[in-house]
Design brief:
The chain is α+β, with helices and mostly antiparallel strands. The protein has helices spanning 2-15, 49-72, 109-129, 133-149, 188-195, 203-212, 219-238, 243-254; strands at residues 23-29, 32-37, 94-96, 99-101, 158-160, 169-172, 175-178, 184-186.
């Protein structure tokens, strides 16, 4: 669990865009583990909504800019090993809450999202609750997935926070801070879909973000699909009381 969080914090920190607490080391403790991080006096975020939106957008663009930079340097001697990530995934599993999520590398975004994000959550629901209704709806929704991505064009892998919700964002005297990531390389819109859950962010966040990365056609439609991951994750954490809510979301996506 903490291996993935540690790697995610280090990956975000390496972009020099969004601020995170610096991770120091993992320590074995009483049969478990502790992740030792930098202390930050965090107690504010609202005043930094615009700064946060811009920094998250720059984080999402970091890998794309690496590609552009390396393409310009391709003919130079000794330009070094490529740092651009050309696939979707991450070097290890990461966790949203305590539920591990798959991150096996994949060349196609839609395939990665379906198999490594949604299918992993559905498998956990089936194993724990033996629910067949979600399996039946998923069989229909899988066939409809390409409709959400038509006219989108090629998706460049972006480093994502992976669990960008209000409870994982704060700030200190120097500006906004994000923490508790479930990082992986995916479609930048995925992070923004989770922002709208659990209380949402100040509208200034979205204005600043979209000044850097404008909305693509179908953005709102895909956001509802991406939110399904979080809804499955809530079911896996808190039980069948959320079943009808999740099934309702799936039915809405099938309309």
């Amino acid at each position: 669990m903490f291996d993935g969080e540690n790697a995610g914090l280090r990956a975000i920190m390496a972009t020099e865009t969004a601020r995170v607490p610096k991770p120091y080391k993992l320590v074995d403790y009483k049969g478990g583990a502790v992740l030792v991080m930098e202390y930050m006096d965090m107690d504010r975020v609202g005043q930094y909504a615009s700064t946060l939106g811009e920094s998250i957008a720059r984080m999402h663009l970091h890998n794309k800019y690496l590609k552009i930079k390396e393409e310009k340097e391709v003919n130079r001697v000794g330009c070094g090993e490529s740092r651009y990530v050309d696939k979707f995934g991450f070097d290890m599993p990461t966790c949203c809450g305590y539920v591990p999520t798959g991150n096996e590398w994949c060349e196609d975004w839609m395939t990665f999202f379906a198999r490594q994000k949604l299918q992993h959550q559905i498998d956990a629901i089936e194993k724990t609750y033996g629910d067949r209704d979600v399996i039946e709806l998923w069989s229909h929704l899988q066939r409809k997935l390409p409709e959400f991505f038509k006219n989108l064009g090629a998706v460049t892998p972006a480093l994502l926070h992976g669990d960008l919700t209000k409870i994982n964002v704060s700030g200190d005297s120097e500006g906004p801070v994000v923490f508790d990531p479930a990082a992986f390389y995916g479609h930048s819109e995925y992070d923004l879909a989770s922002v709208d859950m659990f209380g949402g962010f100040d509208p200034l966040f979205f204005t600043a973000y979209h000044n850097v990365i404008p909305k693509a056609t179908g953005f709102d439609h895909r956001a509802r699909l991406y939110q399904l991951f979080n809804q499955f994750n809530i079911w896996n954490h808190f039980g069948s009381a959320y079943k009808e809510q999740v099934l309702g979301a799936m039915k809405d996506l099938l309309q």
